Structures
1.
Amino acid sequence: MPHATYALPIIDVEDFKDGLGENDRTIASSLVAAFHDRGFAYITGHGVTQDKIDGVFEQARRFMSLPTQAKMALLAGTDGVDTKGYSYPGMAKVTQNAEMDGADLDKLVHGAPGMNETFRVGIVNGKSDPERMPKEEDLPGFAEAFITWSDECVQVYHRLLRIIALGLGSDVTYFDRFHLAGTVRTPTIQHYLGGVAQAGHGRLNEHTDYGYLTLLFQDSVGGLEVVDAAKNNEFVRAPPVDKAITVNVGDMLSRWTNGILKSTMHRVSAPPDAVKDGVLPERYSIPCFCGPSPNTIVDTMPGTYGPNRPKLYPPVNGTEHIQMRQAKMYPKKKAQ
């Protein structure tokens, strides 16, 4: 049975004026409602220029067209601490269960090969990390394209945090203090391989994002599906919308807001209408995962708890929590 088309809320943030504009509270209420109900929204009026977007997609295709040996020279670490770099198909296994073991883990590790390869671009403090970035002579303009594009993504991220703060009844600058030592950004190229379509094989397992906010840019192939609580938690399509960024809440921001903002399960499937003559086309998406300064202690935001709504989560070091989740992407069997 085909999935129904899923229309995420479309929210235009172009006119937001840091709480001073006449429509600011309307924008803030709309965004918080979308993230509370769905965990996802299409954001327009974001300010990320189309030439920057086109530039990173061009560079993404150039990178994934490199010889395997060249990509393997930038291989990602598997300890959860240093995960920037290249992951070949099947290397990283997305799982929602951080404690998976035994038969379930064995099934995941030895199941169908992964249908995507990824590259977490090496950017630290807004600058190129030479250990996790292609050399300029190999891919001219790659580093500059991703740095300048992600600079604009970071601006959108901060604007969205200010809108969220206002929508939750706080000062618009509430989240600013957690970014004084810089904003962590992780641009990631996700290349879903083309090939013979196989019934029942998805392209990325269901999961929630474990960070703060994800800004997702994708090509026209589609395949993103999101759990819709209003439809008995079934997965429904969230196709790309022209000129919009698909933005979703991660586990850490949900935790920060005491669960008011929802971190929603999602996956990538093979859209039947994309299959031509039994062949599934390749797909590119480029999320930019954004978060506060390293080692930020994430404690429940004031105003989101009280006598009738207790704190749902204890304070946690955000960096350590994310590293734990990242390490689970490379599952290893426990000693018998």
2.
Amino acid sequence: MLTWEDDVLPMIDATRNYRDAALIAIAWDAGPRSGELRSLTLGDITDYTHGYQITVQGKTGQRTIGLVPSVPFLQRWLNDHPGNNGDDPLWSKLSEAVEPSYQTLLATVKDAAERAGVDKPVTFTNFRKSSASYLASEGMNQAHLEDHHGWKRGSDIASRYVSVFAADTNREVARIHGVETEDVDESTPTAPVECPRFHQRTPREKDQCVHCQQVLSKEAAMEQR
């Protein structure tokens, strides 16, 4: 499975433009089906409490997915996007609001993976599976996972993802009740942070705001001196 810190972020850093960075980030963050991802338009992007959300047309109908770690990357691409019409494809060519081919988009992802040294499968399907695995491992229940990924109620697929991590849930319940359990490494937060100067969301993993280059920590400021 593709993880945010070890695979997705290095791929994003290896991209050549803001579109490709946003594409990779959203593929993992939202986990949409390939067709859902590729058919997104500018009008499918709306604001919500934590940044942006996308509305996709899937097998189970229309659903809206809130974005979190991908927000800064999407914002930079929206600022550079050549279109200004709600019907324009989100994943357009860099200089005109025309949709590139599926092969072109997939090639950009594979190119980023190669330059980042990621040797795992980087199909859009694997991004979707990786997204579901991450959410299940963090304790998302089956109903929420079904809503997020567009599976019908009682989905065998969602059930399998949840059951894989059932041992982690049982361990946590035992710990709450006072049973001594093996220590489990806490997951690394993926949500962006707000730049204190620009007041926009920026990746927490970066020392500087991706929008205005404001240094975000005392440690980073000391290194620049």
3.
Amino acid sequence: MAGSCLKDAACRILDTPNPLDKATSSHRVAEAWFAGKLEAPTREAPSPPDIPARPDRPPLVRPGEVPRRRRGKPTALLHAVAHIELNAIDLAWDLIARFADGSTP
């Protein structure tokens, strides 16, 4: 990550399709940032993607096209939490990629 800025790292994570790789990279970048191993965000950093990368499978579908799941099942709850967490990771890195500047703590 030498010579890399926080915005570069954010864009790389947003371009990572595998959720596990995305989470692992997030931890590594956070550790590097807090250890002072990443440069402050610069304006020359690449623009973030319009849509974060996702794996090819399963295919993305609109919510109305998904069969209703039964409430109360532990697997359904875990599945929902996994989607929420993946979107939270993407939102956090998207904010950094778009709006972080040299004064970012």
4.
Amino acid sequence: MSIAFDLPPAARTGQPVDAIDTPSLVVDLDVFARNISRMQTAAD
């Protein structure tokens, strides 16, 4: 059985943090990309 959820995003990129409903996951994309790069380097 499969259930699809079509929910609008809680926030948009660039939206002020104060305007985001909680709970929400907030990700710093620069830090995220740097961490992915470091993990890839360690895996190589």
